[in-house]
Amino acid sequence: MLKFFSVVFCFIVSFDVLADEPITPLVPIEGLSPDKVKLGQQLFNDNRLSKDNSISCASCHLLSKHGADNRTRSIGINGSQGIIKTPTVYNSAFNFVQFWDGRSRTLNQQVSGPIHNPIEMGSHWLEVIDKLSADPAVAVQFKTLYDDGLTAANIADAITTFERSLITLNSRFDRWLEGDEKALSANEKQGYQLFKAFGCISCHQGRNVGGNMYAYMGTMGDYFSDRGQPITVADYGRFNVTGVEDDKFLFKVPSLRLVALQRYFFHDASERRLVSAIEVMAKYQLGRNINEQDAELIAAFLRSLVGQHPLLEPQ
Ligand code: HEC
Ligand code: HEC
């Protein structure tokens, strides 16, 4: 009888773990053409996408690191400095919109952004197509894979297909979600409980632990006046897209999947330590003080979210 109950009990417990958690495991995107992924990867690394052939997507989105650079602001062509911290391209296929302010609805739409941005690649589709069609090998690749050959839409399609393959699978946290109790340490489990108990989960949730809603930076306090740095255009967030006053300081909630690998935190790169970033979040997003010990436990949980990808340095 006891045995019967414990079997039922175990079943309920493990069922609960899988069914009720507000974070779900990352899954690969099926059905991607391997040839398009390969072409996309090649284009992602191709300097000819920039005006002076000096940088590629990969110059700012370092795939062996966390899919972004380790700078406070990115550096584009001619050494021009960006206005906002570079986010990761890993798992971006699962974000509901692209960019901090959500100005691209899809990955596909996103691609022409950096190509045309004067402080990023400073180029133009026509220039890019001119340069690439002068390369017979590339032209042939496009002809083989796309009926209409080398076009802007097909370049964007190949790059996007590659980006959709950039999912970091098999994190220890996901293995735990899938029922492997030993995948997490006691501290990491406690960190996850705190992440939920403090309310971080109300914004950072779903399979990307973020990336599925907008939220104000400073929901419970005036982050920007306390920061002590003058407000910049980038700080206005979603307002820059909609022009609606209420959208000032509204941002896409970033995914925390690879946050533990970052060197700087927040759109303005204002924090250098993960634990300090967690303290800022508790204070300004939740109106709560968090002690260092609890912040450390949450940081331990965040480190368990880092998954694997063949292009990402093993952790
Ligand atoms: C000069 C550095 C730089 C280059 C080159 C660059 N990016 Fe970015 N990327 C950024 C920055 C900075 C942002 C954030 C901009 C913003 O949100 O306003 C970004 C955002 C993104 C995002 C959105 C991610 C998210 O979660 O919102 C994707 C996807 C992306 N870039 C892909 C690319 C691709 C593809 C290329 C090449 C065609 C490229 N990037 C070239 C710096 C760069
Ligand atoms: C009200 C929604 C909300 C809540 C609650 C919230 N966050 Fe955030 N989080 C955000 C937003 C929005 C950003 C981006 C802010 C920015 O860059 O200015 C962010 C950014 C972060 C970052 C930095 C990500 C990066 O890429 O630089 C970390 C780490 C983080 N949150 C952790 C937490 C933790 C831990 C908690 C709980 C203590 C929490 N957040 C609670 C909305 C929220």
Automatic annotation (TrEMBL):
Molecular function via GO: cytochrome-c peroxidase activity
Organism superkingdom: Bacteria
Keywords per UniProt: Heme, Iron, Metal-binding, Oxidoreductase, Periplasm, Peroxidase, Signal
Subcellular location: Periplasm
Signal peptide, first to last residue: 1-19
E.C. designation(s): 1.11.1.5
Keyword Ligase part of the UniProt annotation: no
Residue ranges annotated for the Cytochrome c domain, each copy included: 35-166, 186-306
Classification via PANTHER family: CYTOCHROME C PEROXIDASE-RELATED
The name this protein goes by in its record: Cytochrome c peroxidase
Organism from which the protein derives: Neptuniibacter pectenicola
